[in-house]
Amino acid sequence: MIEYHVRVHPSADRLPREEQLAWRLAAVAAGTEELDPGSAAMAVNRVVDNAAVATASLLRRPVAVARAQAHARAHHAAPGARVFGSLVRVSPEWAAWANGTAVRELDFHDTYLAADYSHPGDNIPPLLAVAQHTGRTGADLLRGIVAAYEVHVALVKGICLHEHRIDHVAHLSAATACGIGTLLRLPIEVTYQAVQQAVHTTTATRQSRKGEISSWKAYAPAFAGKAAIEAVDRAMRGEAGPSPIYEGEDGFLAWMLDGPRSDYTVLLPGEGEPRRAILDTYTKEHSAEYQAQAIIDLARRLREKTGPLGNVRSVVLHTSRHTHQVIGSGANDPQKYDPTASRETLDHSVPYILAVALEDGGWHHERSYAPERAARPETVALWRRITTVEDPEWTARYHDPDPRRRAFGGRVVVTRDDGTVVEDELAVADAHPNGARPFDRPAYERKFRTLAEGVVTAADQDRFLAAADGLAELRATDLDELFPAVDTQAVREFDETLPEGLF
């Protein structure tokens, strides 16, 4: 890997393009050719994972709204791209919008945590849409996915956005533009300009993940994917972007991040190095923010030791600064303790998640968030006795450079009314690569079948999984097979219950 130091340059420096981060990202995209077998296999797993969570979200309002907006653009489609839950083909940027929302809605697909946060599986919907629209093969799509993950992970490792309350989709849009560049074998110059435009247009605050969290949490990455496709389209037509977008004196680093003295280190593969960053990422076994995954597993274990939860005086989660401040009581969001809060708020509330997991001994992507479940009096009473605190040791482990020691969990201390204490800790989720039950290919298939049950017939589940397994050999005309067959009439009937918009 090559270390690149990224800092602010005055315009008078005339920083050469080849020394700009956007160019170097585009060069990584252009150099993604022969794929590491492990990376290719993991990319297939993530295609399956995305389809699983998208299928489970088809009859949720935000997903239906995004789908309706995409359908309104069907007359611009030819040849177009598919939308989950529909046989209609729409223009690729709107397919990316609808499918990206479906994938993100349940907060249930993959994650990578380092200096910043990310859900690199959000790259897949726009890449699949562009592949369909442009007649690319499954092998082309695989290359694009692996390249997008490589760029995404590099940015998340090297540049923290959250510290400045910038939403993580700014890194996503750059990665997606690079993945499209790889998919289409675009010249470095074109991808470079697309990255600059995409980053410029998708820089937003993290208010979408703060306080009363709304459905925009699902739309935000879909918007970034849509913007990346539009940026590539403009760049292919010869249009340039704000340059240098990262290093300019009025650019991303200077005004959004560490300011004029910014100095970030981004590690990128050298010429001929395998693209293996996707193997550092991990998916979710539970439908909740990633830093709650280990806590759900820990609660399941603790439940056997605590006894009656009505006799609990307090529960304290000792954890990393990130977990404490983003999904814990350190966020200072009263909404995280509100039983009438939105689902999006509850899946970012570790006090709520810990309370329900302690009571139920497990987690379900729908039942655990049902309004009647959140409002249960005994749950609310326990929930409001749960707090989080930052523990410097857990913060250090969160950032440990050794992936074998890196941890996203914490230590839970339960104090009963009689003063006795029960405590336990868990470093990583059971499904993490270093966990008790690392997610393997059969686990991805089980997750798909579980979420598709009652929505996709068993035979159609088999057909989809066979197509995904053979992704590298799929012809351009076969990419429709990556959309599980569902009862489209039921989806249409649900969509018809929505209010009308402008289109």
UniProtKB/TrEMBL annotation:
A Pfam family name for this chain? MmgE_PrpD_N
The family database entries (InterPro entries) matched by this protein are listed as:
MmgE/PrpD_sf, MmgE/PrpD_sf_1, MmgE/PrpD_sf_2, MmgE_PrpD, MmgE_PrpD_C, MmgE_PrpD_N
Domain MmgE/PrpD C-terminal, first and last residues per copy: 286-469
Q: Which residues form the MmgE/PrpD N-terminal domain?
A: 32-261
Region entry Disordered: which residue ranges?
Answer: 323-342
Q: Which domain of life is it from?
A: Bacteria
Q: Which family does it belong to?
A: Belongs to the PrpD family.
Q: What is this protein called?
A: MmgE/PrpD family protein
Species of origin reads: Kitasatospora purpeofusca
